[in-house]
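Record format v2
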Amino acid sequence: MNTFLLLIFPLAGFLIAALFSAFSKKGLVVGKTFAFLGFSAIVLVAIMAKSEIGSIIYGPMMFGWQLQFGLTAISWYFALMISGISWLTVVFSLGALREGGTYPMYYAWLFAKNLGMLGVILSQDILAFFIMWEFMSWTTYFLLQQGTKKARSTAMGYLIYAIIASMILFAGIIFLHQASGSFGFSEIASTVAGFDMRTLILAAVLLLAPMLIESAAYPLHRWMAPAYSSAETGITAFLSAISTRIGLYGVAIFLFTVLGFTAMKKLSAGHYFNLQVVIMTIGAFTMVVPTFTALFQHDAKKLMAWHSVGQGGYMLVGLATATSLGVAGGLFHIFTYLTYVTLILFCIAAVEYRTGTTNLNSLGGLIKKQPIAYVGLLFGIIGLAGIPPMNGFVSKWLIYRSLILGGHPFLALAAFIGTLGTILSVYKLIHNIFLGQLPERYNDVKEVGFFMQLPIWILMLVVLGTGVFPGLILGWVAKIQVSLGVEPLAVTLSGVQASAGQLNMNVVSSVFGATMLVAFIIFLIGGRRRIVGQYNNYAAGHFLDKTVKYNFNYNFYSAYEHIFGKRFLNPPVKRGEEGLVALVERASDFARRIYTGGLNTYLAYSLGAVILMVVILKGAI
Amino acid sequence: MNSVIGLVVWIVFYPLIAFTVGVFLGGYGRKFTARVQRRVGPSWIQPFFDVIKLMRKRTNISHGYMHDISLMMLVSGTMLSLYFIPVPGFHYFSQFGDFVVIIYLLLIPSLGMALGVGETANPNGSIGISRALQMLFGYEVPFVLTFIGMAMLNGTTSMYELVQIQQSGGIATWGIVTHPLLGIAALFALQGMMNEKPFEVIIAPHEIATGPMTEMGGKYMGMMFIQHLINLFVELTIYANLFLGGAKNWFELLFKLFVLFTLILSVNSVFGRFRTDDAMRFMWKIPLPLAAIGVVGIMLGIG
């Protein structure tokens, strides 16, 4: 019943919100209240649906096949994340959306997007999966448009990639139905063992490629950063937190449940080259390249959007290891990433709400004006960089260990390089927004209101809480591992129990607390301190006042730009994409010439066609 | 019961021991550099006097709460990583966190200092931090690769177990003997990690007014000194544990630290300063390929 409601509630919400926005010109308050109640209901239903894991409900008949929906361990995990993050986004938007904004269908598309995502994770056969996938892609397109003017063209960029992905997936579904005679996940899984090599390769490529496009894996990632960064900031948070990860859900499902990892192991040429290595290499490139592209960004949202691409690489590598540690790391990283990226983007949105900009070169010194947003961002970046005691550390630790002990030293190095790049770019983020000199024009900036603060507080608690007690989430991750057929991780509330080097986050964080206390005592032993303003500063004998710009934030990592700038700002993937676009433009230009607009030409075409038909028919007779 | 008391005693005194060793190493460093430059140099325990002097200053200028907290993060992060490093007689915490944890705990002081310096709103400080983080990337990459190689070879990421394995066969099983390429690569990285010349562009006194320390005075500077001295012990011990077989007793450990530090000081005293990008290029041109060759060797089963 609850599983059914998980699909019905978003559908009803979408219809009502759409009707409401069509007939009512004003009344943002009503829309906000309705959305808040609707998403609260979805969260409740998602939590209550736990007892229904394993049961199947049947949908309408299609092409002689009855669509199947149902919850599994992994889809419940995703359902909670989707509904939870939607709820937080809606709470945040209660404060963030202003009257007279340009978001007429904001909530309607949010409901629709929820329907799409929940539908994808609930579907138990590839036909339902495809239908819901299509729906989800279209709603993403409309959701992306809710924002700046630039959003329309960048959303179109997303749409092109999404359509390519859908076409490949469609081909994959037809192909799989031909090969196995059924649409259902379990029916296909039982016939996979009988597939020959060619069928297996085609099935793997046709199913995994669209998932990799959706999860923005290198080199199919270029749609993501521009599209996400030009959307409204709340939506950027929502989309980079969960929407892209549906692609990873697909990878997990197809790799472990539908095709099965034993079948995938067969896909190899020699000892060093197989499907697993291919996916892991894609993951490694995704970890490193986008993270360093993020380093060069001058816009906070764009920087985070590039990280959103990069962090996907960790999840992909983790899943592809197919070991107990790695899969747990990949699945847990989806959760941890979701929490801290939303936190970071909400804090950026809080700054944008007051200052009207996310340009990293013009902000600065806001820590005095928006301390809560600062602390939120600090928690978020510590999580993103994967430093204890935040939750991001635990998931990354699992992935590193699986790579090191699994004998993939260079993949482990790539993961470390990605993390170091992350630290560099997130420091730039927090420094350029909150630290350094406060420009005079931001003297009146205030902290944001209650509804925008509430999600920030909740997420701070989650980021720290699941870092100190990772077992809260890892316990369920271990259950998912069982259902995926991977050996489950030995989890305790405080961390991981493993033979060669374990992890106990309780100890790490309590020692951290104790040493902080010692450091505080040392701090107190010193004399009284005096807090001074920002113009009371060392300036080599010069004097400072508000007319002097005394700040360093432009071109923050100049040595890197000196070494790498050209390669990352104009990478081969970008040039390849541009070449492809130019090719399509030329082809379209050629096609355009066929339609001259003159009646004579069309008559000539028709005549030619008739003659051709006659010739063919004659030949046939 | 005895073991519990022993544990408590270790937990209380371990940071003090590390600090004391750091004081002597720091004093030795200054003396060594002075003698190379044909000066007499300060007292052997000059760093200790410096800390006392700075902590007793009456003028302490703060730029806000993050500035204060950052100094606490600096000292606490270093102490935290210290606890997870096994030394003779004390390896209680190694069972709760492995070497990957230590690498990440070592980032807490860097991040803490970076945040505090950011709040002081001095561009010299920010430039110093920008350089520090770029350098971090430079030396951490080869260093991490050497660690990955050692961990992969021995099948464990626990530092204590790595030490045990190396101690099993005397000098012949030390990391630097069995895998000299990794050991040498890590030695280069260590030079950068300790900010000694030619990798001291972070502080660069004549260019950017001592960089991160520009706005630090009084007890703030004193806490940075404390952290620096403990950090000397931490970084040298990590290297000793990874490649010099750790130590069976404290005498052996101190001797190894002394030798290692002398080596680093000797390089420090004769070199000038690399520019940031040149330093990074160096790190990726010499130690990184060395470490990579070493790791490939391990993968192929050679050495």
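Chain B has one domain: 2-300.
Chain B is about 70% helix and 0% strand.
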